[in-house]
Amino acid sequence: MNNQRSFFFNIDWLTILIYLALCVIGWFNIHAAVYDPLHPSIVDMSTNYGKQFVFIITALILGLVIILLDSKFFSTFSPVFYGITLLLLITVLIVGRNVGGNQAWIPLGSFRLQPSEFAKFSTCLLLAHYISSTNLKMGDLKMIGVCIIILFIPTALIMLQPDTGSALTFTSLVFALYREGLSGYILIIGAILIVLFILSLLINKFILVTILVAIAVMALALFRQSRKFVVPITVTTVACIAFIFSVNFAYQNILQSHQRNRIDVILGKVNDPRGQGYNLNQSKIAIGSGGLWGKGYLQGTQTKYDFVPEQSTDFIFCTVGEEWGFAGSFVVIGLYLILLLRIINIAERQRSSFSRIYAYGVASIIFFHFFINIGMTIGLVPVIGIPLPFLSYGGSSLWSFTILLFILLKLDSNRMGII
């Protein structure tokens, strides 16, 4: 009896309450986004909102099963989970159904399974398993190399679908590696490359190179009395110049045309509100029209008349903004921030390195989805098509995020033990 009572109180119920709140908010907003007057019931199984209800119930059952499993199960079988998801990612390339230009779904009757969603939690598990089971330090080249391979394989397979949005999610796990000792210079280099990529698209590359060389010359003059800075500054400058000249090739040959168009719209290179910028323009109109308190449940005109595409999935936040206004948006964003802070708090109280690494992986993935999804609906980032955790319609998405979160809750409930 005491063990059962201890187990009950060890579960982080605040996190579960936030999870439930987000699922319910998502369910009601899916109902509003694709509302059909002929099928008004929110549990009508012939509609997406009825199906989402089933997804939520099955997700709760899945979460309960995870809570009842032994914590060691996840660390022991993490390579197996990773291997299974890789097989699914290969399978989807062979028998997958192409939807919207992406061959990312395996048809299972009326249901479509998206393996890329499940690759997120399995990659987190294997990454945590490897780092926690080796005596190498994060600065060791072998350690970094293996971590890169673990992240690269699912990323490459997902890029072949091609699903750039889901593939980019794995880059967020660098923050988990940083917490474990990865040099901060890696993050700085990444930030510099992002800035150079954007500038290369906005400024003539020869002008940009001239500016870069001028900065390097000034830096060398500033540190002229210390020769140890000469080589790093020179090498960095040459590498940045090479990167600048490679951007155009990558932009034209790696990214698809619709992805280039979305980036051009965000950067202001294209002003086409009725064409390439239609989705973003309608998204902004929907969110802005909600005002402070919103138009009310099922009263959104942008929603009702299908002006915003994919409004129950990638653009679900538009429904929140239009029908619930700034107040409702503030509540939703607040719930995500509280959830992220809670996950970080859970991570820092772990006694097991496996649990801590996994927890930071969970925080990184949820933050990436949260920031990018909301950012793309308000024009801060290009539209790359990733769901908003727990809110967007879809069984694969909801189940994968549920597994991701409830594994953490299970590990946390057993934090006084050793995994």
UniProtKB/TrEMBL annotation:
UniProt-annotated location(s): Membrane
Pfam families, sorted: FTSW_RODA_SPOVE (PF01098)
Molecular function via GO: glycosyltransferase activity; lipid-linked peptidoglycan transporter activity
Source taxon at top rank: Bacteria
InterPro entries named among the record's database cross-references: Cell_cycle_FtsW-rel_CS, FtsW/RodA, RodA/MrdB
UniProt GO BP: cell division; cell wall organization; peptidoglycan biosynthetic process; regulation of cell shape
Spans through the membrane: 7-30, 50-69, 81-100, 143-160, 181-200, 206-223, 230-251, 324-345, 357-384, 390-409
Keyword Cell membrane among record annotations: yes
GO cellular component: cell division site; plasma membrane
Keyword Amino-acid biosynthesis assigned: no
Keyword terms: Cell membrane, Cell shape, Cell wall biogenesis/degradation, Glycosyltransferase, Membrane, Peptidoglycan synthesis, Transferase, Transmembrane, Transmembrane helix
Bilayer topology annotation: Multi-pass membrane protein
Name of the protein this chain belongs to: Cell wall polymerase
Organism of provenance: Arcticibacter tournemirensis
High-level lineage: Bacteria, Pseudomonadati, Bacteroidota, Sphingobacteriia, Sphingobacteriales
The encoding gene: rodA
